[in-house]
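Revision sheet: C-alpha cells.
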Amino acid sequence: MVKAIRRPAGRGGKRALAWLLSLALLSGAGLGVGAGTGISTAQAEQFERIGRYQIHYNAVNTSFLTPEVAAANGIQRSRVQALLNVSVREEQDDGTTRPVPASVEGTVGNLAGQSQPLGFRTVRDNEAIYHLATFRIQEDEPMRFDLRVRYDRNAPPGEVSFIQRFYIDR
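Predicted:
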C-alpha cells in the first residue's frame, strides 16, 4: 500500500526533505556520507536509467538521520532500522531532469530468498517527490532489494534490484 503525504509549507518539512536530497548531492560530490552509516560513497546515491527516466535510490541507517529530520518525516530513528528513498526523474531535451509522479512497490530480504514487502509512502515537497520505506536491518548480512517502479501508466513498471550490506552502530 502506498500512502501519499503532502508536507506543509513550514520550514521543518522543507529542511528535512532537503536533507534527503542533500545526501544524494554529497555522494555525487565525492564527500562521502560518514562513518558508521553502513553505506559507502558509491552506495549513497545510485540510479538506473530506463529510457528517458532515471530511478534514483539510496538506503541509509535511520540512526544517521538527525532527530529533527526523522521527526519531520515521521521516521523512527533506530540502530536496527534503515530508510530506503526512491525518486523518479524524467530527462528533458535541454539536459535537465524533472520529478515524475510514480508508484513504488518492492521487497527486501536476504540472499537465501526470505523477503518481506516494503511499505512505501510518498512525500511531496514543492516539486520534489520522494518514496520512502523503512525496514529492519540484518546485521552484516547482504540485503537484496527488488523494486517495481511505475512512472508511466502506458508502460510496464521499471524493475530495479540491488544488494546492500548494513552495519549496526554499537
